[in-house]
Amino acid sequence: MLGIIEWKRTETQYVAILQVLERFESGSIRELQRRGPETVLGGTLRGTTRTDWYALAYSRNDLEFEEAKALAREALDRYREQYGGFVR
Q1: CA angle 15, 30, 69 (to 5 degrees)
Q2: Distance from first CA to last CA of the chain, Å, rounded?
Q3: Residues 6 or more apart whose Cβ sits within 8 Å of residue 51
C-alpha cells in the first residue's frame, strides 16, 4: 500500500516521498495535478506504461509542516479510495 516513506524540505516546499525513485522510468517524473497548495508528482513505472504517484509537494509559503502532513494523509486516503491502495 502506498504511504509516505520520507519527508524532504526544499526552500519553498515540503515534499512527501511515496515511492523510491528507482521504481520510475528515468526522466518521467512530472506534475500530475495541482490542488490548492498541493502538487502530486508522478511518473511512469519502470518497464510499464502505467503512471503512478511518486511524491506530494506542499508550499511552505502557504502551510506549516503539520498542515502539510495532514493534507498528505488526506491525499493518500483519496488515492486509496480511487485505486484501492494498489499501483495503477
Answers
A1: 20
A2: 12
A3: 32, 42, 43, 44, 45, 88
**Cβ proximity of 64 and 37 under 8 Å:** no
- DSSP 8-state assignment for residue 54: E
**Residue 34 pairs with which residues in a beta bridge?**
39
Strand partners, 31: 41
Residues 6+ apart with CB under 8 A from 61: 12
Render pLDDT for 9-60 as a digit per residue (tens, 0 to 9).
999 999 999 999 999 999 999 999 999 999 999 999 999 999 999 999 999 9
